[in-house]
Amino acid sequence: MHDHAPAPGGIRSAGHRRLLTISLCLTATIMLVQVVGAILTGSLALLADAAHMFTDASALVIALIAASVAARPADDRRTFGYQRAEVFGALINAVILIALALWVAFEAVGRLINPGEVEVAGGLMLVVAVVGMLANAVSMWLLSRAQRTSINVRGAYLEVMGDLIGSVMVIVAAIVIVTTGWMPADAIASMMIAVLIVPRAVSLLREVFSVLAESAPKGTAVSEIRTHLLDYEGVVGVHDVHVWQLTRGAPVFSAHVSVEPQLLADGRSAQLLSDLQACLAEHFDVEHSTFQIEPAEQSDCEPHHA
Length: 306
Hints:
By secondary structure, the chain is mainly alpha-helical. Helix content is about 65%, strand content about 10%. The N terminus is likely disordered.
């Protein structure tokens, strides 16, 4: 009997998409409020926190836009369709995030060198930061249950948690300014938030380069897949295995499968092919798989690359 646990849930659930959309709306709204608040108060920390929220909002926006683009049918020139649109969007996003983080850090250093150059309205800064913290808390509450069963929702949950931490930093800086009048607190908070942005951007860049380099998706155990395929009756070998991804959540798999000659003689190759594809789709979340089924004696004469 061939049996194993299914792959973790993705973004396909309509309920999960709805929660992510609500979280996006809250994040984008507070991001705009913080930008306006930064302009009115002169707070760099509020602007940095808005940039931090931009990391989450832009990722979800890019995913939604890419989903629409990716839905366009494949043609003779783009045989895989337009799913790489998300990858190029993520690359642009990562570059923007790094530029924002560097700009915030540069401005923060300037304010630390000249602490009296900008007067920050600590009271209004505190109000805006508290609103941001409450919005992030609501987003975390909305996602708290679904994040236990969905990797994608879990990622959004952790990112909102990062936003919450950023908002707390701004609140602490605002309290320091209100109670002591020490303006450098704003610059220090903004630098700390910039530090939070960089790992997210670098992680995004690494994921983009991994996709473009056609590396196996993170978390995909090729040896485990091969072992499960070998469990099927009549399969004696799996070689020339290639696993890559068109974009996040769209892995592609191809392999040569050596089978006993009797399986071919009995006309069971079509059923085996269907079973192998169903195995990858249901248990490893690989919806696009290609298998070349061949008799064992033929594979013995071919060079095996993987």
